[in-house]
């Protein structure tokens, strides 16, 4: 069984690597420019061999910025588990690292974290590179991970390949027999790894695979899809339009003059001698009565600029990203309500990712609390920053409306964003002030 699992894991890792590398390249701006013409190469050589007007980062970063976790909750609201969960979150610096994990999933389609106890007995969350991990989902129970695999190269000079298979009840560790320059080894090239004095099979008493998979926009039991998947072709077309414009600027953006009816002289080697030299301080003069002079019109670069703008609109359409992420707004700025309507699709997408990623975080943090001895069968709820945040004025207005239907002053202050200690202090100050005003009023009556 382990042979079949490792072979399947290696196959999936190899298939994913090429896909992930392409998305990584496009995010970084290293695009395929196979369409560059000979005229472009003659004009610019290798000057713009890696040129791109890169819109890919905006597609990923715009969505990533909408995925910020502010807390964890439980249904009854009375347990200390949210505090324990947030302590675990903060101790692993996940305020920063969660953004990296979300970005990896958005950019490549998948990202992974591992939750386990480090050598110092501290529960630790380990973010993983997508190309190093893969999972197999249970066919009978959709969404349940049957096993996970991770591969990497050793840090010593031997550069051997390591592969771990994580099951619900154990972790099996393997290493290649020899140095692996590139790629992954076959199963026959692997041996059990126990060189650090620990058995190659480490027991897991929690019956949970300690690897958690963030699959972006995935179907049931399937790997995720990159947000760049539908935008790469548009990016390629945009790059071509820009390169075509550069060629046009080089060859046809200035008015070209011509002369006809002039006898051309040749040098001793038979090469034609140009009859005129261009220049702002030069005149073209000839005594030949049959000579004619004229000029060709310059290329209209406005058409190229329009094509560029059209491809930006296409990128916004196929990726569901608001257009203003790709181009500066000209003219009067739209109102807040108008922007909300324009962002409806984008906001819905961000909310969908919050729901999907939130469930993974809930499982991962609950498992971390289990490792830390905080209890079994923990059900947390991820509390996200709103994908379409309201203004402070709108938020306060909503809180006032809630007060009118019965929420307490304390709850209103908490929803306004004040911490519990600040709320306690303000409630006490209000109570003291009310009592003092009552005493002053009674004293006046006497």
Number of helices: 12
Task: Give the domain tally.
Answer: 3
Structural class: alpha+beta
Number of strands: 15
Q: What overall form do the CA principal axes indicate? A: flat
Helix content: 40-55%
Parts with pLDDT < 50 across at least 5 consecutive residues: none
Taking all residues together, what is the mean pLDDT?
85
Largest sheet: 6 strands, antiparallel
Entry summary:
Helices cover 42% and strands 18% of the residues. It has 446 residues and is α+β, with helices and mostly antiparallel strands.
Write a concise keyword list for the protein shown above.
446 residues, 12 helices, single chain, 6-stranded antiparallel beta sheet, 18% strand, 3 domains, alpha+beta, 3-stranded antiparallel beta sheet, 15 strands
Give an overview of the whole structure.
The protein has 446 residues and is of the alpha+beta class. The chain has three domains: 13-146 and 206-254 and 301-389, no CATH class; 255-297, no CATH class; 390-446, no CATH class. It is 42% helix and 18% strand. A hairpin with a 5-residue loop joins strand 12 and strand 13 (272-273). The relative contact order is 0.13. The model has no long low-confidence stretch (mean pLDDT 85).
């Amino acid at each position: 069984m382990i042979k079949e699992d490792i072979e399947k894991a290696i196959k999936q890792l190899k298939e994913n690597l090429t896909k992930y590398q392409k998305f990584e390249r496009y995010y970084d701006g290293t695009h395929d420019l196979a369409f560059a013409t000979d005229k472009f190469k003659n004009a610019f050589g290798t000057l713009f061999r890696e040129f791109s007007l890169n819109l890919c980062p905006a597609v990923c970063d715009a969505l990533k910025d909408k995925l910020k976790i502010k807390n964890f909750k439980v249904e009854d609201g009375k347990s200390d588990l949210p505090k324990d969960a947030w302590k675990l979150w903060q101790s692993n610096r996940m305020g920063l690292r969660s953004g990296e994990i979300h970005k990896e999933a958005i950019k490549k389609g998948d990202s992974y974290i591992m939750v386990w106890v480090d050598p110092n007995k501290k529960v630790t969350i380990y973010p993983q590179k997508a190309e190093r991990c893969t999972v197999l989902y249970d066919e009978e129970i959709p969404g349940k991970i049957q096993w996970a695999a991770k591969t990497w190269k050793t840090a010593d000079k031997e550069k051997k390949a390591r592969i771990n298979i994580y099951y619900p009840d154990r972790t099996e560790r393997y290493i290649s027999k020899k140095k692996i320059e590139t790629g992954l080894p076959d199963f026959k090239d692997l041996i059990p790894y126990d060189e650090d004095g620990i058995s190659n099979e480490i027991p897991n008493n929690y019956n949970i695979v300690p690897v958690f998979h963030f699959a972006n926009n995935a179907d049931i039991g399937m790997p995720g899809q990159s947000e760049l998947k539908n935008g790469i072709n548009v990016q390629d077309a945009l790059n071509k339009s820009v390169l075509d414009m550069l060629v046009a600027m080089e060859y046809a953006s200035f008015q070209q003059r011509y002369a006809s009816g002039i006898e051309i002289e040749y040098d001793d080697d038979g090469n034609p001698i140009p009859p005129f030299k261009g220049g702002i301080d030069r005149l073209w003069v000839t005594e030949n009565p049959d000579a004619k002079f004229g000029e060709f019109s310059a290329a209209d670069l406005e058409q190229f600029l329009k094509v560029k703008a059209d491809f930006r609109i296409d990128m916004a359409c196929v990726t569901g990203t608001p257009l203003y992420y790709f181009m500066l707004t000209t003219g009067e700025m739209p109102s807040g309500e108008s922007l909300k309507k324009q962002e409806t699709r984008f906001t819905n997408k961000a909310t969908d990712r919050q729901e999907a990623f939130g469930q993974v975080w809930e499982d991962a943090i609950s498992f971390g609390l289990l490792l830390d001895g905080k209890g079994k069968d923990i059900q947390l709820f991820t509390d996200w920053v709103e994908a379409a945040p309201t203004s402070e004025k709108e938020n306060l207005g909503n809180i006032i409306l809630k007060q009118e239907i019965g929420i307490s002053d304390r709850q209103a202050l908490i929803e306004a964003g004040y911490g519990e200690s600040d709320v306690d202090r303000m409630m006490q100050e209000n109570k003291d002030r009310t009592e003092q005003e009552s005493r002053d009023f009674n004293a006046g009556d006497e």
